[in-house]
Amino acid sequence: MLCGGHSGIEVLCAPCASDLPRLPERCPRCALPSPGGATCGACLADPPYFDATRALWLYEFPCDRLVQALKYRGALALAPFFAHSLAEQSLPAVALVVPMPLHPARLAQRGFNQAAEIARSLCRRTGSAFAARGARRLRDTAAQADLPYEERTRNVQGAFACDLDLSGKAVALVDDVMTTGATLNELAKVLKGAGAARVENWVIARSVLR
Ligand SMILES: [Zn+2]
Ligand SMILES: [Zn+2]
């Protein structure tokens, strides 16, 4: 899918797969670069609602092209590839895997939710419980990418609801890209409000641009 070379049944050939941009040493909570992999100052000063973030790659070329190919060009074969790559990360056991929900209008337009495709494929592989409707999107918020960073937290406030009783449960949130983390944090807040004891972000790509 990247170099046009032979890759058998895989979407990427082995050299392209091993060339995807690695994340530097990072904060276990937010996955931003942090020397020695220590919890970063921002997470210490103002802890987010999520407890940990596992991210596969930097959101840079060519990982960004793959993420966009799934989301905007419907390259659905990438979902099992991403899921397989996540599953190789020795993920902790969780009670539920919840995909970042799309607003129904956005879902109707796109035809699929890329986060749900990844999460479903991951659960098929790991045997974890896939909560397709673990969370709902109440508002079709302005695309976060179109907003200045400081407005992103406000943009997503009140955007989600959760109808499940998550009392005492560990939950994983699956999304394709984590940028400021504002959207994941808002959803983690709602899941904690529903009783979740622990919320982890499992994302494909982490943008570290500030
Ligand atoms: Zn290749
Ligand atoms: Zn951090």
How much beta, percentage-wise?
Answer: 15-25%
Distance between the termini: 29 Å
Number of strands: 6
* Rg, nearest Å: 16 Å
Low-pLDDT runs: none
Count of DSSP H/I helices: 8
What does the largest sheet look like? 4 strands, parallel
Bound molecules: zinc ion
For the largest sheet, list the strands in their spatial order.
1-6-5-2
Helicity, in percent?
25-40%
Quick structural overview:
With 210 residues, the protein is of the alpha/beta class. It is 34% helix and 16% strand.
Descriptive notes:
By secondary structure, this protein is of the alpha/beta class. The protein is built from eight helices and six strands. The strands form two sheets. The chain has a four-stranded parallel sheet. Strands 3-4 form a two-stranded antiparallel ribbon. α4 crosses α6. The chain is globular. The model has no long low-confidence stretch (mean pLDDT 93).
Describe the structure using short key phrases.
4-stranded parallel sheet, 8 helices, two-stranded antiparallel sheet
List the helices and strands and how they pair.
Layout: H1 14-18, H2 41-45, E1 52-58, H3 63-73, H4 78-87, E2 96-99, H5 104-110, H6 114-126, E3 136-137, H7 149-156, E4 160-161, E5 170-178, H8 182-193, E6 198-206
Parallel strand pairs: 1-6, 2-5, 5-6
Antiparallel strand pairs: 3-4
Helix pairs in contact: 4-6
The protein binds zinc ion (2 copies).
One zinc ion (ZN) binds at residues 27, 29-30, 32, 39-40, 42-43.
